[in-house]
Design brief:
Layout lengths: L1 E3 L23 E3 L2 E6 L6 H13 L2 E7 L1 H6 L8 H9 L6 E5 L4 H8 L4 E5 L14 E5 L7 H8 L5
Parallel strand pairs: 3-4, 3-6, 4-5, 6-7
Antiparallel strand pairs: 1-2
Bound molecules: [cytidine-5'-phosphate] glycerylphosphoric acid ester.
The site of [cytidine-5'-phosphate] glycerylphosphoric acid ester has 19 residues, from strand 3, helix 1 and strand 6.
């Protein structure tokens, strides 16, 4: 936890940082902020586990959900629309704020805008975002084995049976 002077408004874009901890003229403990990125197609336990593990380490979780247009750039096509995917992420109790992810370069901007202490991804992205370590902690957490949107899709199509 960081200590922080009371005037935290410019660093509190979503009113997450100031809640209940600030008293005029008193040094406050600013909550720690983590940000993560993904498609979250066919929202599953692997996504939930990642969010839960992040909230076990940080006070505030900001999740950037890839738009359908950005997924096309990533060469991915999701079964569930962006509008529904971000609503499902928002409905997860571990998530404090969900925003759109629309390009590879937005991470640097987001880390500064949300005053993030950490950018966290699952271990399948290990090493991919180390350059962000100049701005904040870069953390790769173990993936949940045995579940993925791709596997779910092929199960549904009955391909694996
Ligand atoms: N994940 C996990 N366990 C699984 C499946 C996924 O921990 N069984 C994690 C991934 O490691 C990732 C997050 O869930 O951190 C979202 O995964 P995807 O929706 O597959 O995200 P992806 O399309 O890889 O997009 O800028 C980064 C990209 O947006 C990542």
């Amino acid at each position: 936890m960081r200590t922080h002077p009371t005037s935290a408004t410019s660093q509190d874009p979503a009113g997450l940082l100031g809640s209940g901890l600030t008293h005029p003229g008193v040094l406050t403990l600013a909550p720690t902020v983590a940000i993560t990125y993904g498609t979250y197609d066919l929202f599953h336990i692997g996504h939930v586990n990642l969010f839960r593990r992040i909230k076990e380490r940080y006070d505030v979780l900001v999740v950037a959900v890839s738009t359908d247009e950005f997924n096309a750039v990533k060469g991915k096509r999701s079964a569930v629309s962006y509008a529904d995917r971000i609503e499902m992420v928002r409905a997860c109790r571990y998530v404090d704020l969900a925003i759109p992810e629309s390009d590879w370069g937005q991470k640097e901007r987001d880390i500064v805008q949300y005053n993030a202490d950490a950018m966290v991804m699952g271990s399948d992205w290990t090493g991919h975002f180390d350059t962000l370590a100049t701005l904040c902690e870069v953390v790769y957490l173990p993936r949940t084995e045995g579940v993925s949107s791709t596997e779910l899709k092929s199960n549904i199509k009955g391909e694996s049976r």
